[in-house]
Amino acid sequence: MNLLQEDSHCRTIIHIDMDCFYAQVEMIKNPQLVNVPFGVYQKNIVVTSNYIAREYGIKKCMLISDAQKLCSNLVLVKGEDLHDYRQLSYKVTTHLQSYSRLVERLGLDENFVDVTQLVSEKLNSEDTVLGHIFGDNLEYCECGCKKRLTIGSRIAQDIRDSINKEFKLTCCAGVAHNKLMAKLVGATHKPNQQTIIFPNNAMDLVSSLNELSSIPGIGKSICECLGSIGIKSIEDMQNSTPDKLKTLFPPDKAKYLYNLSYGVDEAPVKATGKPQVIGLEDACRPMTVEREIKDKIEQLLKRLMILLNEDGRVPRTIKLVVRKFDKSSKMSHRETKQCNVNQSIFSGVNGKMLPEASEKRLVKVIMDLFIRIVDIKKPYHITLLGLSFTKFLERATGKHSIAAFLKKDLEVQAITSIENMKDLSQSTGMDLSNSSTDLNTDGSESELEPSPKKKKLSTFIARRYLNTDCPSPSKLNVAELRINCEKISDDSFHCPPNADIEVFRELPKDMQRELWQNYVRERDREERLQVKKPRLNTLLNYFVKN
Ligand code: DCP
Ligand code: MG
Ligand code: MG
């Protein structure tokens, strides 16, 4: 089987890796570090260092003591709080999303960007390569990949320039027709450089690696498995067969791994959005009384609100993690519970702070979760508490936006449902209509999703407008939407399907029209997409359209 024939060159992928990422962030925070050798450490390990320190031979993940032997005047900066690294990391990813909606994060400092669409729009532009070219095989393929990748190299330069301008960060880029090649080739010239590889040199690049584990996607445990059937090097793998690998891995995985050894990688760049969870946890000396727990929760909540504020979305769920220490068995045990939170809690957020009353409500919600995990009538020893928010809505923009209007409507509904429950929830902001998280008997986490009810109009529209995680119209069945459409007046607009007609009727006429028109626009677009190959949407397109 000639696997290389399966290797399509139609994509253009750029891999971006920030230079000495944590160190760069520290240099932005403290410019005095720029001209001295310094390392960022966690516990007793230097996790990275600036490039001046690397000239002394300091490598990532060296023991501090070893690093100091190499460079006696090494400055050390603690890097255990990842907050600033994470913050800049997401900013970079968001920035990259203006080049393509297909941006995939890999760790904190790397992103794959599939710029195939952008390249196709620039096919008439200048085509001399920017940056280094890997390999010396000049037998170019006829499929047009040479031109596409060349344009990709110019986009990579543009991306790197813009990252530098926007964030004062330097990075490396690799340009290739697949993710594997883009990542590998980007690392061939560092720092602050970029390299392109054409497919005819892919085998040379793979073969230049020292060991199997240097291939991204082949980690330690896979290497151990492969070793058990005598595959110890990249060459061994190339001389093996997918059938042989199938004795260890499922067929798809076997083929995927085998292909990697030939530089073939069909894996798509998967768009990664914002994180699904924003959370933090703190280990602590054993806490045994409720007051200590409450203090800790208040501290955690304050820090969590800073992260939430930076993220900009509104969470629908809060989760508490508790680690209990059992004195008799000397064992620790983690338990998690979550519940929905009323959106209204976040409506008056001022900067990073929750209004005092909202904070109290939220702390009460969390303490209620705690009491559901820990029997406070009996002695307990809590050695870790964690808090996280999940299931987000985008925050409404503009006071008078439809989103803001509908968000208010959401709150009214939530409050109504709490009032109907007439108990605990009123003071706490817990939305009891969906708080039935039960601890499994084994103590493991259980996350109950809301039952798939018909969506309320407010939810439906708010999600549409707030651009959140609801199924996109593309995932809805267009025919079904049509059938469910209900005409509400003699005007030419209707209630969008799957929506609550009662609430829709309450909306001002111009909003009804706008909502209907939006729905029709989406529906028509959807139909067009079914016959046409999808046109990639850039973030810019999205905003222009909306
Ligand atoms: N990191 C870590 N533990 C590791 C490796 C890295 O905490 N074992 C952190 C520190 C790095 C960041 O992740 O700054 C990104 O990892 P990279 O491997 O990309 O390393 P750098 O960006 O620091 O350096 P380079 O310029 O080689 O990319
Ligand atoms: Mg890096
Ligand atoms: Mg990296």
Number of helices: 21
Distance between the termini: 49 Å
Structural class: alpha+beta
Question: Order of strands side by side in the largest beta sheet?
Answer: 6-7-1-9-10-8
User: Which residue ranges are poorly predicted, with pLDDT under 50 across at least 5 consecutive positions?
Assistant: 397-492, 530-546
Provide an overview of this structure.
- The structure is a single chain.
- With 546 residues, the chain is of the alpha+beta class.
- It contains 21 helices and 16 strands.
- It has helices at 21-29, 51-54, 64-70, 83-96, 116-121, 145-167, 179-186, 202-207, 220-228, 234-238, 242-245, 251-260, 290-311, 356-373, 402-421, 425-428, 457-466, 478-484, 501-506, 509-531, 539-545, and strands spanning 13-18, 38-42, 45-49, 62-63, 75-78, 103-106, 110-114, 132-134, 171-176, 194-197, 277-287, 313-326, 331-340, 382-394, 486-487, 494-495.
- The chain has a six-stranded mixed β-sheet with strand order 6-7-1-9-10-8.
- α7 links the parallel β9 and β10.
- α13 (290-311) packs across α14 (356-373) and α15 (402-421) runs antiparallel to α17.
- It is globular.
- The two termini are 49 Å apart.
- The model is unreliable at 397-492 and 530-546 (pLDDT under 50).
- One magnesium ion binds at residues 17, 107, 109-110.
- Keywords: DNA synthesis.
- This is DNA polymerase iota.
- Residues 426-454 are annotated as: Disordered.
- Residues 426-443 have a biased composition (Polar residues).
Annotate the secondary structure layout.
Elements: E1 13-18, H1 21-29, E2 38-42, E3 45-49, H2 51-54, E4 62-63, H3 64-70, E5 75-78, H4 83-96, E6 103-106, E7 110-114, H5 116-121, E8 132-134, H6 145-167, E9 171-176, H7 179-186, E10 194-197, H8 202-207, H9 220-228, H10 234-238, H11 242-245, H12 251-260, E11 277-287, H13 290-311, E12 313-326, E13 331-340, H14 356-373, E14 382-394, H15 402-421, H16 425-428, H17 457-466, H18 478-484, E15 486-487, E16 494-495, H19 501-506, H20 509-531, H21 539-545
Parallel strand pairs: 2-5, 8-10, 9-10
Antiparallel strand pairs: 1-7, 1-9, 2-3, 3-4, 6-7, 11-14, 12-13, 12-14, 15-16
This protein binds 2'-deoxycytidine-5'-triphosphate and magnesium ion (MG) (2 copies).
One magnesium ion is lined by residues 17, 107, 109-110.
Biased composition (Polar residues): 426-443
Family: Belongs to the DNA polymerase type-Y family.
Protein name: DNA polymerase iota
